[in-house]
Amino acid sequence: MVWLIVIAAIVVAALERNRRRQPHPRPRTSGSSDVQDRDAERVLAELRATAGREL
């Protein structure tokens, strides 16, 4: 039973350490901003196709 508590404590400590090491969301000005948003392009294409069928 003691080993179970020790293992649980180690796992919790490791997860907490990993959470603190994760970088926080950065502003859009950091890094590359010329990435294409393929989801937006797909949604627009689907909306245009749907609008074309309804006419």
Protein architecture, described:
With 55 residues, the chain is mostly helical. Helices cover 67% and strands 0% of the residues. The model has no long low-confidence stretch (mean pLDDT 79).
If you compute it from the alpha carbons, what radius of gyration comes out, rounded to the nearest whole angstrom? 24 Å
Low-pLDDT segments, ≥5 res: none
Oligomer: single chain
Beta-strand level of the residues, as a percent range?
Answer: under 5%
Tell me how many strands there are.
Answer: 0
Structural class: mainly alpha
Name the descriptors.
single chain, 55 residues, mainly alpha, 2 helices
Topology:
Elements lengths: L1 H20 L16 H17 L1
TL;DR?
This protein has 55 residues and is an all-alpha fold. 67% of the residues lie in helices and 0% in strands. It is built from two helices and no strands.
